[in-house]
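Q: I have 226 residues here and want to know how they pack in 3D. Can you give me a structure?
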Amino acid sequence: MKKLVALALFLLLPVIALAKPALKFKSATFEFGEVSSGKILDIAFEFENSGDEALLIKNVVPSCGCTTAALDKKEYKPGEKGTISGKFNTSGYNGRVVKTITVTSNDPANPEIRLAVSGTVVVKDFAQADVKPGQIAFGVVKVGKAYVRKLNLSNLGNMDLRVLEYSCSPEVSLAFRTSSVAGKNSTEFTLTFTPFEKGTFNNMVKIRTNDYRSPYAFIRLEAQAD
């Protein structure tokens, strides 16, 4: 009898050794198609424990703050199904977007699975700044003398462009006719450069606007002060 019991246990050992959890997703991709920027999308990834031991999902980590993901619980029995649900905020995006969610579990065959949320975000209303010229070479200048240049700020978008702030060296000042430019319009502004000391001047003016794709416009200034 003891020999029969031992034989039975010996035959069962390979079966016990092969028992394992298995995390299987219905689809590892979530394609949302084409949506307008600013929309918050509901996302969901269905899965099943297709193994024969309890599945433990350790972590669900989105690639960025624009995406959230959550589980009702972390442990799933063999054959039990579940859903990783969350949201994706499309604000600030334009064009093709791919975001990921990394799932780690006790599945020995696939301890880490990367899910993908993808689609195209379209911006219908936007402001787009264009500053010309983008570079000014004053050449040889005199210390203490003011040099004035006229520049153009255009709004290539269809909603109002706002000048929020600008930064430059003490030798430079800007004067805008208006801080807001309507869509498909432009305005002139003045740049004044007054060198304080002799030497080579090479600096950058930075203008910040509500153009979300390129919030900063730059103007490079070059001069040789005598």
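Q: Anything worth noting?
A: The domain at 22-122 is CATH 2.60.40.10 (Immunoglobulin-like). The longest helix spans residues 2-18.
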